[in-house]
Design goal:
Radius of gyration: 24 Å
Helix content: 25-40%
Distance between the termini: 35 Å
Bound molecules: 5'-O-[(S)-butoxy(hydroxy)phosphoryl]adenosine
Largest sheet: 8 strands, mixed
Number of helices: 20
Strand content: 15-25%
Length: 653
């Protein structure tokens, strides 16, 4: 039976960019966008061939797209290039070597700045150290680092010599690191003694020691000195970077890579299943990262750009390292937590470095809202001209707060939808053109042919929800799952017989054709035969002043098929009644906002929610709790496992 997802959320507000913003923007009118987008779909060879030729190739490509091996695309065959050369050398060679590439702030307040020429020299030295340790083209190197400049340098150094990097987020456990090292067959690990996180040391080297215990193929652990506590040392295997750099040349010719050579692996677990090593290659990836950074962030000379993600996520790859550097941007990078040493830290840094473009996640925005407006209001944020969000659907209340409190009601917000798998931004407003709507990712980016389908692969009408699908290859798409071709086909291409890439998200288009993401399809609720998006019920809950954050799941119900269970974090301390009174109010509130159909059967008030380390709510755990089941699932990606007991024993309204 084909069934679409019903939409119950209506959001009519719309915010066009100011004349001032539009006047200076790279792309300011819809007809130009439509022409460019149309050409990118009808003539991808022409469109992306031209874009790719804006980058410096070591040897020109002979074909643009080859889709004969679908669903594995080949872009820019015959061409050779090196991503570190694209990101660094080209700017130095063009005489921009003295321009600032990276302004870095450590959590304790230390600061380092690198020009393009300096960054190039550091990357070459780093690359020479890797070579001296026997790392060569095609080898896999795990990077497990704090957010320090050496994290970006390590990635670029691997790229320079053609080694494949696999960055593992520094908050992951030793076990998660082992799994990824093993799956990727990594032979070297780059790490640091530790990183600063809310005033304490994240002991990275200790975790690496544990992780590589039974990984005999790991011959080198290259360690950056950052936190300076004592660490165990395995002679022969372990090497301090600062010692290895002594006397090393700052010249290292970039390895000419085939456009389809693998650039990196990045593991994604999302909220379900065994991590998948997503494979990205060289030419298409850098073209996608370059083009999207340029247009979505409207990057121009004089901008200072800050993306607050960690390099452990795809956002850090594409929008801290590769996209901004390929564009010659000046950017800020920060080591620590947003509330260390105080809740205004991000805004303090925006003021200090006159940040003009700021990109963060909805989960962070909701935390700022909770901490209170005073932390934002204290700082001069007049340098900001553009804001962005990524990672999950943003509820309208948070969007409006971001716009007003951070953006001074002056900055457009780009709500960018994409995935580890897509490599770069897929659905997004273009800030000089779009009248943005709170909660909408708006329009497809160049080369993106998106559709919303029912289970059978028929397009649903505007206003109806369905499954988000992409119709044809785009340059930065994944080329597969490391070591598991079959899983690549099954996960992304089997639903509609290879005709579409299945993103796994629910979405709808409004009457104007704009896209609204409704969350992962695994999370869809089915109440009395109505399929509802968790995100919309959550938005209704969060629109109540007593709620900071909400997560909604279904539990089996004899009467309605599924019943809605909502877990909510209150704005104030949980009251003496355990949140009972709030729960009663919220049920009525949701019924009033959306309708009785969506009224939660049960509300649990709790100070926290279970999240992955990237801030995504783990609804599969909440589903088990709501159904009263034992948790037998993998909880290794959970940020704080003690939450589960708390939620299980909490008061229910
Ligand atoms: C999933 C991908 C893309 C970088 C960070 C996450 C969700 C992402 C949005 C958005 C609604 C979003 C989707 C997607 N998502 N951006 N703007 N609006 N949902 O990468 O870990 O691969 O997660 O994040 O569910 O499928 P990821």
């Amino acid at each position: 039976m084909s069934q679409s997802i019903e939409t119950v959320l209506t959001e009519d507000r719309s915010f066009p960019p100011s004349d001032e913003f539009r006047g200076a923007a790279r792309l300011a009118d819809r007809s130009t966008y439509e022409q460019m987008w149309r050409r990118s779909i009808d003539d991808p060879e022409g469109f992306f061939g031209e874009v790719a030729r804006e980058l410096p190739w070591l040897e020109p490509f002979t074909s643009v797209l080859d889709w004969s091996g679908a669903p594995v695309a080949r872009w820019f065959d015959g061409g050779k290039l090196n991503v570190s050369h694209v990101c660094l050398d080209q700017h130095v060679e063009a005489g921009r070597g003295d321009e600032v590439a990276l302004i870095w702030e450590g959590e304790p307040g230390d600061e380092r700045t690198f020009t393009y020429a300096e960054l190039l020299a550091e990357v070459c030295r780093f690359a020479n150290v890797l070579k001296a340790r026997g790392v060569s083209k095609g080898d896999r190197v795990a990077i497990y680092m704090p957010m320090i400049p050496e994290a970006a340098m390590a990635m670029l150094a691997c790229a320079r010599i053609g080694a494949i990097h696999s960055v593992v987020f520094g908050g992951f456990s030793a076990q998660s690191l082992t799994d990824r090292i093993e799956d990727g067959g990594c032979t070297a690990v780059i790490t640091a003694d530790g990183g600063w996180r809310r005033g304490s040391i994240l002991a990275l080297k200790d975790a690496v020691d544990e992780a590589v215990q039974d990984q005999a193929q790991v011959h080198t652990v290259l360690c950056v000195r950052r936190t300076e506590q004592a660490v165990a040392w395995s002679e022969g295997r372990d090497v301090w970077l600062h010692e290895a750099l002594d006397g090393v040349s700052d010249e290292c010719a970039p390895e000419p890579m085939d456009a389809e050579d693998v650039l990196f692996l990045l593991y994604t677990s999302g909220s379900t299943g065994k991590p998948k090593g997503i494979v990205h290659t060289t030419g298409g990836y850098i073209v996608g990262a370059y083009l999207s950074t340029r247009y979505v962030f409207d990057l121009r000379p004089g901008d200072t750009y800050w993306c607050t993600a960690d390099v452990g996520w795809i956002t850090g790859h594409s929008y801290i390292v590769y996209g901004p550097l390929a564009n010659g941007a000046r950017m800020v990078m920060y080591e620590g937590a947003p509330n260390a040493p105080h809740e205004g830290r991000f805004w303090e840094l925006c003021e200090k470095h006159r940040v003009s473009i700021f990109y963060t996640a909805p989960t962070a925005i909701r935390a700022f809202m909770k901490w209170g407006d005073a932390h934002v209001e204290k700082y001069d944020l007049s340098s900001l001209r553009l804001l962005g969000t990524v990672g999950e659907p943003i509820n309208p209340a948070a969007w409006i707060w971001y716009r007003e409190k951070v953006g001074g009601s002056r900055c457009p917000i780009v709500d960018t939808w994409w995935q580890t798998e897509t490599g770069s931004i897929m659905l997004t407003p273009l800030p000089g053109m779009s009248a943005t709507k709170p909660g909408s990712a708006m329009t497809p980016f160049f080369g993106v042919d998106a559709a919303i389908l029912d289970e059978e692969g028929n397009e649903v009408g505007h206003g109806e929800g369905g499954l988000l699908a992409i119709r044809r290859p785009w340059p930065s798409m994944l080329r597969g799952i490391w070591g598991d071709e079959e899983r690549y086909h099954d996960t992304y291409w089997s639903r509609w017989d290879g005709r579409y890439y299945m993103a796994g998200d629910g979405a709808r288009r409004d009457a104007d054709g704009n896209f609204w993401i409704m969350g992962r399809v695994d999370d869809v609720l089915n109440v009395s035969g109505h399929r509802l998006s968790t995100m919309e019920v959550e938005s209704a809950l969060v629109s109540h002043e007593g709620v900071v954050e909400a997560a909604v799941v279904a539990r089996p119900d004899d009467l309605t098929g599924e019943a809605i269970v909502a877990f909510v974090i209150p704005t104030d301390e949980v009251a003496d009644d355990g949140g009972l009174a709030l729960g009663v109010l919220l049920k009525a509130h949701v019924a009033a906002e959306i309708g009785k159909l969506a009224r939660p059967a049960e509300i649990r008030v709790s100070p926290r929610l279970p999240k992955t380390r990237s801030g995504k709510i783990m609804r599969r755990l909440l589903r088990a709790i709501a159904a009263g089941e034992e948790i037998r699932q993998d909880t290794t990606t959970l940020e704080d496992p003690t939450i589960l007991d708390e939620l299980r024993t909490g008061v229910k309204a």
